[in-house]
TrEMBL record:
The lineage of its organism: Bacteria, Pseudomonadati, Bacteroidota, Cytophagia, Cytophagales. Residues 14-93 form the Winged helix DNA-binding domain. This is Transcriptional regulator. It holds the Pfam family HTH_34.
Length: 94
């Protein structure tokens, strides 16, 4: 039996955690994702860039009053990649 390849971009613990959070919400603020994942701001920024460059998430930068606000949401491409990853992972478990 041959197993499907697991997406290396999603195989990272932090990137998988981000995708898992975003799959269940319309969007999430950077601070919320940072708190939920326990990541440092710098590391989270790098991982969000990787997911964004792959087209898995969209990142919107705006302001809330005078403070910068970064909001992330999962894209259709990201949903498909996440679902494929989970389904491929199930093959290993079964």
């Amino acid at each position: 039996m041959s197993f499907a390849q697991l997406d290396p971009l999603l195989h990272s613990q932090l990137r998988l955690a981000v995708m898992s959070l975003l799959i269940g919400v319309d969007s999430a603020e950077f601070v919320f994702i940072k708190e939920k994942t326990g990541a440092t701001a710098g590391n989270l920024s790098v991982q969000l860039d990787k997911l964004s460059n792959a087209g898995y998430i969209s990142v919107t930068k705006s302001f809330k009053g005078k403070k910068p606000l970064t909001t992330c949401s999962i894209t259709k491409v990201g949903i498909k990649a996440f679902e494929d990853y989970v389904n491929n992972l199930k093959q290993y478990i079964e």
